[in-house]
Amino acid sequence: MLGLGKTTLAYSVYKYPSINIHFHVCAWSCISQVYEKDSLLFDIFDQIVGKTIRSHETNREDFVQKLYQSLKGRKYLIVIDDIWDIKAWNNLKGPFPDDENGSRILFTTRHRAVALETNSIPYSLRLLSPEESCELLWLRLFNGETCPPELSTISKSIARNCKGLLLAVILVAGILKRSKRKEDCWEHVSNKLVSLEASDILEFSYKHLPDCLKPCFLYFGTFPEDTIISASKLIRLWICEGFVQ
């Protein structure tokens, strides 16, 4: 399911020092619905070896062998985010040696059927309870301060309408931060959430952005999916585009 926090949790595990230190090499890549096998493997190779190789510089068989040899005998952690079909993994797994040395490959997927085909026990993220959703919403809105009494009931209703999705709570908190702290304004948001699916909430949040910020948001579309973007670099790019001053 979309919006549970799978990628966030996987990235936290991937970056956690006491986990990371147990592996000789680590790599992270996103596969998603549409992917290019060679590009994904080149990206993993770049992270492991620290050397960039492109498709015109080597043939596929030689490259796959180079990747295999770079991992052979080493304890590695590979994270592949957002797998939609087990066939994708079957198509990719050739260069990853199974030396039974504690190496790990971590998948994230929104499809339980895919997780069950990996011959391991999947860790399923649960939905937030209404109470947890409300607690997170209040934390995002009031920074640990008490929710005003006049907004308590409507904020609980909004939290329930987020349907237990972490992403929905965070996005809706962003909308409410830009709204007046009035019950009728928040009631409009609550009513709208009732009819929205998880995939619609991002669009709903985008529509509530100020017009001056919408180009900044859309600019993220120029980066490959799951790219880690330097904030300072992003600001400079926005300035160059004339989005901000």
Automatic annotation (TrEMBL):
UniProt-listed SUPFAM superfamilies: P-loop containing nucleoside triphosphate hydrolases
Matches recorded under Pfam families: NB-ARC
Ordered alphabetically, the record's keywords are: Leucine-rich repeat
Which cellular component, as a GO term, is one annotated location?
Answer: cytoplasm
Q: Which InterPro entries match?
A: Apaf_helical, Disease_R_plants, NB-ARC, P-loop_NTPase
* Domain NB-ARC, chain residue ranges per copy: 1-143
Protein name per its UniProtKB record: NB-ARC domain-containing protein
Organism ancestry:
Eukaryota, Viridiplantae, Streptophyta, Embryophyta, Tracheophyta
